[in-house]
């Protein structure tokens, strides 16, 4: 019995002409036979979910470390929320939902333990060897470090998913070949030598909705977690007109509502308004650009899925509030200092004696490498750690470990 792949519904309606088409994908680095029951983008999404890198996200910090409480977001819960928003945007714009979801699910694979603090510390340690970039690390994970398949390293994802991973925040090179945000990370350049991801162009619209979904998700859930922690109050939120309006709306409709439900009603409205804003802006941009293919989207010379001018200002105000009230709060800064010390200490310990990386499968190979290659392997090992593993590793190697409380 044979299966007609094109007759399968895949659970959603017709794609627009500018959507990425899984039936005409640019393919994979290593050729594989087609699946009779899943599109190539579905297969990518499924491979991402089944990785060890995906599972490790549940014990990696988003803002508050695991010891702060069970109800705070982790990298995993953040990733799931981003994927949900990305899929909603993709459906509204008639895109390929599986590709949008796959890019959203993989976008944080390269993050270190302890959030951006760990990334900053690892970047500083690796500075003499090219530094550290979490986006480039995500690419290394899915093209090299995941070791699940007999015929290749990595996941052998489609060109479109890898492109979205690398370029979801926009082109990495200007038309004259300069880095749009400084030098392009070497792992990305190295990979493009064998599988060109065209890093001077924009990404597909599926990748663009994954990127804006990331902003929507963390703007909302960092406020939620900030209220839960006490670093934010409803009075503080009143300083932002957009949030003040949402709170007035909830108070008018539900007078005397308890704080936890009040918070949820604000957050759900925030997500809805931001999603609707992106849909409206994207539809207007599509009417102007009139792309006839996914490649037309890449060549449009502009972002299509983005906020309106007013919502972009709100986004800026929310981020400024979060930095002032949470990310740079003295309590958080003290914890960040301890987390940075853990990463720096571990990096130096492993550089001095790679055999201390007991569970690292390249440990026997590392001993004979030069410092640059050894440092990159140590960086891979550290970046893959969860918060809990990094703390326990530090306790095993050092007499005193910072208290991250």
TrEMBL record:
InterPro entries: dGTPase (IPR006261), dGTPase-like (IPR050135), dNTPase_2 (IPR023023), HD/PDEase_dom (IPR003607), HD_domain (IPR006674), PHydrolase_assoc_dom (IPR026875)
Domain of life (superkingdom): Bacteria
GO terms under biological process: dGTP catabolic process
Single GO molecular function: dGTPase activity
Limits of the HD domain: 75-219
Record flagged with keyword Hydrolase: yes
Keywords: Hydrolase
Family: Belongs to the dGTPase family. Type 2 subfamily.
Protein name: Deoxyguanosinetriphosphate triphosphohydrolase-like protein
Organism: Rhizobium tubonense
Taxonomic classification: Bacteria, Pseudomonadati, Pseudomonadota, Alphaproteobacteria, Hyphomicrobiales
């Amino acid at each position: 019995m044979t299966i007609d792949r094109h007759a399968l519904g895949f659970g959603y309606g017709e794609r627009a002409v500018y959507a990425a088409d899984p039936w005409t994908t640019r393919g994979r680095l290593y050729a594989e036979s087609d699946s009779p029951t899943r599109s190539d983008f579905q297969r990518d999404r499924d491979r991402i979910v089944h990785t060890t890198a995906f599972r490790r996200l549940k014990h990696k910090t988003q803002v508050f470390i695991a010891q702060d409480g069970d109800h705070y977001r982790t990298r995993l819960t953040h990733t799931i929320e981003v994927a949900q928003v990305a899929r909603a945007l993709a459906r509204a714009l008639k895109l390929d939902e599986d590709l949008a979801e796959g890019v959203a699910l993989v976008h944080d694979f390269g993050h270190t333990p302890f959030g951006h603090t760990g990334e900053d510390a690892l970047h500083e340690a690796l500075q003499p060897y090219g530094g550290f970039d979490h986006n480039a690390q995500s690419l290394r994970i899915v093209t090299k470090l995941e070791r699940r398949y007999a015929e290749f390293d990595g996941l052998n994802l489609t060109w479109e998913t890898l492109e979205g991973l690398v370029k979801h925040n926009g082109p990495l090179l200007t038309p004259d070949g300069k880095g749009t945000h400084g030098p392009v990370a070497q792992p990305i350049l190295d990979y493009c030598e064998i599988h060109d991801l065209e890093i001077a162009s924009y990404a597909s619209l599926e990748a663009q909705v994954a990127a804006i979904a990331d902003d929507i998700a963390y703007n909302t859930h960092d406020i939620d977690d900030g209220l839960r922690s006490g670093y934010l109050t409803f009075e503080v939120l009143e300083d932002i007109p957009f949030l003040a309006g949402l709170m007035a709306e909830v108070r008018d409709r539900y007078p005397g509502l308890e704080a936890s439900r009040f918070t949820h009603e604000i957050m759900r409205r925030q997500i809805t308004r931001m999603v609707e804003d992106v849909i409206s802006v994207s539809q207007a941009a599509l009417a102007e650009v009139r792309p006839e293919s996914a490649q037309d989207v890449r060549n449009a010379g502009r972002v299509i899925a983005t906020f309106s001018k007013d919502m972009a200002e709100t986004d800026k105000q929310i981020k400024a509030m979060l930095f002032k009230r949470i990310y740079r709060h003295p309590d958080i800064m003290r914890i960040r200092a301890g987390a940075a010390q853990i990463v720096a200490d571990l990096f130096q310990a492993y550089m001095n004696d790679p055999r201390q990386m007991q569970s690292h499968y390249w440990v026997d190979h590392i001993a004979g490498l030069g410092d640059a290659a050894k440092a990159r392997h140590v960086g891979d090992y550290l970046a893959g750690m969860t918060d809990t593993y990094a703390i326990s590793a530090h306790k095993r190697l050092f007499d005193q470990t910072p208290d991250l409380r």
